[in-house]
Structure formats: structure tokens, C-alpha cells
Amino acid sequence: MDFLRSSFKMAWFLLFLFFIQVVILPTSEALKSGFTIKVEAGNKECFFEEIKSNVSLDVEYQVVEGGELDINFYLKQPNGKILLEDVQKSDETHNIITPEDGVYEFCFDNSFSSLSSRTVFADLGVDFNDDDDDDNEITTRGLKDTLDGLETETIVEALIKIRANLERVDHIQNFLRSTEARDFKMATSNLNRVFWWSLIQSVALIGVALVQVNVVKHFFGGGKYKARV
């Protein structure tokens, strides 16, 4: 009987963990996305996201290719007021609390450039508590009673912390990948410049050497004096 009781508790415990994974943890974060966007010269690219008020909004971007690796960025509130604005920045990180409910506008502006497009890596994160917290709390309380004494609160807190840490690790890895891509493109561009400049210098050096050799030959061996009789 003890074995059956232990097996029954373990089954409910596994069911509880599954419930946390698919119901509670996913609601702790509504938006977490990393993407790459190409902004053509003289244009701007905007996208929109509906966000609630009083939530933590993380905005991070980095120009990985194009021009002087700079871009204009602004974030506009639903009422049309500009909440954030950066002018010709290579990369930036912002963390704000949203002041109101509604659709927020995120724009990357490359209108100041007439020749070069920009490739931008952006990472956005919105953290907030779900509206169904009461329902989750009721269901969790019922599972706690079923588990009969297991420290479910500690387990839930630990799993939420683990989930948050994993999301943070993923966020940092995405940013590091974008940094690596930008540095690789810059190194490749510098390598091409060094190669062609070295080639031009080498050709010029060889050309100058040939001219100097011909001049020396002309001065010292080009003509012969004839003896007078």
C-alpha cells in the first residue's frame, strides 16, 4: 500500500510539473523575440505590438551591417507621444515601464542615408503577470492539497527562476551572436580593404622600381662617346 500511495503521489507530482510548464510559466512572459531587419537607404521600418500598462519592456538593438553602423530609432506610445528616441546609434539597450495600454510603435529610421542600407538585430522582451493568475492560483492550490505536504511553493518559485534565467541566457546568446556577426562582417570588410590597398601599393612600388632602373640605365649606359681622330 505504501508503494501504491507513493506512486500515486509521484504521478500527481509529475502532473503538477507539467501544469506549471504549459500553463503557469508561459504566461510569465508575453513577448520575447529576436529578429533581424534590413532598412533600405532613405526608408524606415516600423512594427507594432499591443502591450498592457505597467509592464517591464526591454528593447535592445544593434546595427550589424551597413554604412557607419548607425541607425535612428524611436518608440511611440499609443497616444502618439514618443517614449524613446535614439539618433544615429550603433547599439542601445532600454528598459522602461509602459505608461498605458495600447499598440506601441517601434521604428528603425534610415532616412538620413541616401546610399547604404542597414541591417539591424533587435531583441524585445515584455514581462507581466497574466490576467488568469486567480484561476492559476486556485488550480495550484488544489494540486497542493493533492500532493499532501510537498513544498510546491518552493518548487514553483524555483522553476520560475530557472525559466527566467534560461530566457536571460537565450537573450544574451542572441545578442552575442549579433555582435559576432557584426564583428565578422567588419573584419571581412577590413581584410578586403587591406588586400586591395596592399595590392595597389605593391604595383606602385614595382612600377617606381622599373622607372628608376630605366632612368639609371639611360644615364649611365644609354650613350657612348666617340673618339675624335
From TrEMBL:
InterPro entries membership: Emp24-like (IPR015720), GOLD_dom (IPR009038), GOLD_dom_sf (IPR036598)
Sequence ranges assigned to domain GOLD in this UniProt record: 44-126
SUPFAM superfamilies to which the protein is assigned, alphabetical: Supernatant protein factor (SPF), C-terminal domain
Pfam families: EMP24_GP25L
GO cellular component, one term: membrane
Major localization listed first in the record, in broad terms: membrane
UniProt membrane topology term: Single-pass membrane protein; Single-pass type I membrane protein
Keyword field contains Metal-binding: no
Segments passing through the bilayer: 194-216
Localization of this protein: Endomembrane system; Membrane
Keywords attached to this entry: Membrane, Signal, Transmembrane, Transmembrane helix
N-terminal signal peptide: 1-30
Similarity comment text for this entry: Belongs to the EMP24/GP25L family.
Protein name: Transmembrane emp24 domain-containing protein 5-like
Native source species: Actinia tenebrosa (Australian red waratah sea anemone)
Gene: LOC116293817
